[in-house]
Amino acid sequence: MTPQELGALADRFRAEIGKAVIGQTASVDLMLTALFAGGHVLLEGPPGVAKTLLAQSFSAALGVQFGRIQFTPDLMPGDILGSNIFNFQTSSFSLTRGPIFCDVLLADEINRTPPKTQAALLEAMQERSVTIDGETHALPRRFTVIATQNPIEQQGVYPLPEAQLDRFLFKHVLPYPSREDELRVVREHGSRVGMPDPRTLGVETVADGATLEAAVAAVAAIRVSDEVVAYIVDLIRATRESADLMTGASPRSGAMLGVAARARAALDGRDYVIPDDVKALALPALRHRVVLSPAAEIEGRRADQVVETLVHQVAAPR
């Protein structure tokens, strides 16, 4: 698959997802970038901005096995991974697989469950496998987590630990729709009761497993010059040297940003990465990986502001 063919495939994805989700084009583009880069996405936004519908429509367009976990305070790791159940007829244990055994997993309201249960996703997100009673079980090669969280609630939530946040390629903050898009939402969805189904809204499958593998291979072949690699490294290191940040981005974040930049270039139909690819992805790739210093918190600064400042300060290759 050439970058031009991958760009055309992305356009078909956008068209199908747009049948169900109105607006949120930036969200769709980031999710496509994460898909072709092999990364996971954390969607944050207030209730009712179509986070869940976006994940369902994305999976429907892919035509893969979709799993959903509604995270609650009483959810246990076994509810996610599954467990070995003793079968009295055969006098042996058999594995009952949990909802994590799928291609695309929607971790809905992931910050509503305690850290013990959140940690059940760590191995799956990093190694695409799970261990149950000492036995390792492989997940699909393109296993992808799309997690959602609500930023406005303060009670009954458990913030994700930094180690788990670092496993998400992107943290994307969904905005409220524009007035024009909101008029369309009310006009087209105002007559429905309950959660709409992407299939009933006309979302069709545009890719299969082989097509997805070809797209990922095309991304891996995208060229990144030594100057762009140095720019990525300088940007990552700048987060560790900033006085406004107590903890900067990890080396893993630099490697993941490099892969994401390749995917963005391919989505634009290019076979090479430019600095603008890195700049466009720096905020969603780094905002959740840095920790503000106490002084910056007292001053009311936000991680987004610090990252954006660093993007402007670090010299990009010409």
Strand content bin: 15-25%
Q: How far apart are the termini?
A: 29 Å
- Strand segment count: 11
The chain-level mean pLDDT equals 88
- The rough form would be described as globular
Class from helix and strand fractions: alpha/beta
Strand and helix layout:
Layout (H helix, E strand, L loop, with lengths): L2 H16 L6 H13 L3 E4 L6 H12 L3 E5 L6 H5 E6 L4 E6 L6 E5 L6 H4 L3 H6 L1 E4 L2 E4 L5 E6 L12 H4 L4 E4 L5 H11 L19 H12 L5 H16 L3 E3 L3 H17 L7 H12 L4 E2 L1 H5 L4 H11 L5
Parallel strand pairs: 1-8, 1-9, 2-5, 5-8
Antiparallel strand pairs: 3-4, 6-7, 10-11
Helix pairs in contact: 1-2, 2-11, 9-11, 10-11, 11-12, 12-14
Quick structural gist:
The chain is α/β, with parallel strands linked by helices and about 325 residues long. It is built from 14 helices and eleven strands.
Q: Which labels suit this protein?
A:
about 325 residues, alpha/beta, 11 strands
Q: What does the model show?
A:
Helix content is 45%, strand content 15%. The chain has helices at 3-18, 25-37, 51-62, 77-81, 115-118, 122-127, 162-165, 179-189, 209-220, 226-241, 251-267, 275-286, 294-298, 303-313, and strands at residues 41-44, 66-70, 82-87, 92-97, 104-108, 129-132, 135-138, 144-149, 170-173, 245-247, 291-292. The protein has a five-stranded parallel β-sheet. It has a two-stranded antiparallel sheet with strand order 3-4. The protein has a two-stranded antiparallel sheet with strand order 6-7. A hairpin with a 4-residue loop joins strand 3 (82-87) and strand 4 (92-97). Helix 9 (209-220) crosses helix 11 and helix 12 (275-286) packs antiparallel against helix 14. The protein is globular and about 70 Å long.
